[in-house]
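Can anyone check this?
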Amino acid sequence: MIRELEPADIGAAAELMFQSWARSYADIVPSDQHPSVAEHAGYLTGGEATLGWVYELGGQLAAVAWVVGVDGDDPELSALHVAPAAQGAGVGTQMHDHLLDGLRKAGKDRVHLWVFRENGQARDFYHQRGWRLHRAALDVPDRCSAAPAIRLDKAL
């Protein structure tokens, strides 16, 4: 079941993100540069205009998605993490489609994200769903600077 992220979900969502980083970025970002659980929790409680969802499966969080900048013209899919045990089961695809629907309902017509250049699995996932490389050279946000990153865009 996909539902809105609630304050009571922050601890479990931050732990899920921490585990996802450990699995997904082990060969891309040195482990001592991975955000801690507390840093992920702090990010999820940040002050930006946001939309967030969780995918609950068997009473546990299986995925979390977080979009920032929803009060502007160019919102950012800032996090889409699937618990390692749920990867490959379609959870990410369902969460992806749900968040795009949520952005459309919020009146948005585009969205962007940053992905580590060496994260071929994520790049393939997004490419298969219509995301395209942004052509302009842009400054990478500090939180994405642990390894070379690229921006992908999607029209909604």
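Reply from J.R.: I decoded it. The CA atoms of residues 83 and 110 lie 26 Å apart.
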